[in-house]
Amino acid sequence: MATRVQNRQRLLQKLAAMPPQVRAAAKQALAESADEIQGMQRRLAPKRTGRLARSIVQTWGGGKERYASLAGSAMSDGDPDLTVVISAGNSETRYAHLVEFGTAPHDNGGTTKGSKHPGARAQPFFFPAYRALRKRAKSRVNRAMTKAIKRITGGS
């Protein structure tokens, strides 16, 4: 989930000066949103063996996964405390992207060389959940930060 930011340097200066209470509120809201997105992705994942759903994990600190993944951040430009990556697939479940996007008919190689694969239809589970919940997640983080700022400044 990448967004283009105008006046990036000014924003980064403001984020560096963000009070700890606001950072904590943003992190809590981001964690709730990541849990919600991950839960929906797991519910939408095909359940043939359950390995695909179990492979959907969160990694805090901006670690990059090799398979299907998306990064969420509370406007932090890579701040490890405010960056979470949700990914599907791991070294044992390497087919998350093939399930998400499907495959075209093709000739097999390797031990099944010469055989034809008929292709597989896409069974999207990863990005539909993200698209369904991204506005809600962004609003949750913004509300939490605004509420924390009002608490600090004594605003109503």
Features:
single chain; 156 residues; alpha+beta; 3-stranded antiparallel sheet; two-stranded antiparallel ribbon; 5 helices; 5 strands; 13% strand; elongated
Descriptive overview:
With 156 residues, the chain is of the alpha+beta class. It is built from five helices and five strands, in the order H-H-H-E-E-E-H-E-E-H. It has helices spanning 8-16, 20-44, 51-54, 96-101, 126-153, and strands at residues 57-60, 68-73, 83-88, 106-107, 116-117. The strands form two sheets. The chain has a three-stranded antiparallel sheet. The chain has a two-stranded antiparallel sheet with strand order 4-5. Strand 4 and strand 5 form a beta hairpin. Helix 2 (20-44) packs antiparallel against helix 5. The longest helix has 28 residues, at 126-153. The protein is elongated and about 70 Å long. The chain starts with 7 loop residues before the first helix and ends with a helix. The mean pLDDT is 84.
